[in-house]
Amino acid sequence: MFTLVQAASKTWRRLQGANQLPRIIEGVIFTNGVAKTDAITHSAA
C-alpha cells in the first residue's frame, strides 16, 4: 500500500486557492474561480 501511495503522490498537485477555504465555509459560491455575488441578498433594504 505504501508503494502505491508513493507512486500516486508523484502526480498529485497542490491545491490552488487554499486561502479561499474560509470563504467557502461561509457559503460563498465560486464560478470559474471567481466569487459569485448575489445582488439580491447583498443589497441594502
Automatic annotation (TrEMBL):
Species in which this protein is naturally found: Acidomonas methanolica NBRC 104435
Annotated protein name in UniProt: Uncharacterized protein
Tree of life domain: Bacteria
